[in-house]
Every structure is written in C-alpha cells, then in structure tokens.
Amino acid sequence: MKTIEQFYNEIIASEELKEKLAAVSSEQKLDEFLKENEVEGTKEEFKEYVVEKAKTSGELTDEQLEAVAGGGVWDVVKSIIITLSFDAGCV
After folding, report:
1. Other CB atoms within 10 Å distance of the CB of residue 11
2. Of 50, 63, 61, 48, the residue nearest 21 (C-alpha)
3. Closest CA to 85 of 54, 64, 52
4. What is the CA radius of gyration of the chain?
5. CB atoms within 10 A of CB 12
6. For 29, which of 20, 24, 53, 61 could close a Cys bridge (C-beta 3.0–4.6 Å)?
7. CA of residue 52 relative to chain centroid, distance
8. Pairwise CA distance, residues 18 & 22, whole Å
C-alpha cells in the first residue's frame, strides 16, 4: 500500500495516471481509483491533501477557492493536479 502523498507524487510524474484521474467522473469512481492503485486513505483524505498542497504552494486561484467553499471540491482537485503538474514541468 502507498500513502496519499506517495500516490500524489506518482500522479504528478505520470501522464497515464493524470489521464486516468481526469477520467474519474464521480467521487464513487475516485474511491475505486484509489483502491485500484493500492492507496491507503479515503477519497476525503485524498481531496484534503491535494487542496492543502495547493494552498501551501499558493496555487489556488480565486475561482478554485470559491468552488472549494461551495462544495465543488472534486473538479477543483482535478484542476489543481493538472496545474501543479504544469508548474512542476511534468506535462
């Protein structure tokens, strides 16, 4: 099993994982995606980790912050990962 942090780093470095994550259409599918990739933790923990990572790196836009506050967390999580991937030069 891998931690959420380890899996997050794998996603940032992998085009294949980013594409698979982008194809996840619901939070139920996110649970399945995490299980398929042998990740310890829940979808809620994964989303919290990604949002916190973006906050600490200063990568959340005003629109993303509003979406998180309004409950639109899943779409924001996917966009954050894509944004952080670009910033890390991984795309």
Report:
1. 22
2. 50
3. 54
4. 12
5. 18
6. 24
7. 10
8. 6
Task: Using the structure block, give the residue that is written with the tokens 């996840």.
Answer: 24
pTM of the model: 0.69
Residue with tokens 């990739």: 37
What is the domain range of residue 56?
4-87
How far apart (Å, rounded) are the C-alpha atoms in residues 33 and 21?
8
* Helix, coil or strand: residue 3: coil
DSSP state of 39: B
| Number of residues assigned to the chain | 91
Cβ atoms 18, 82 nearer than 8 A: yes
Q: Which stretches of the chain are DSSP H helices?
A: 4-13, 15-23, 27-36, 43-57, 62-69, 73-87
Hey, is 71 helix, strand or coil? coil
Query: What is the number of structural domains in the chain?
Result: 1
Per-residue pLDDT of 10-37, as tens digits, reads 988 888 988 888 888 777 788 899 999 9
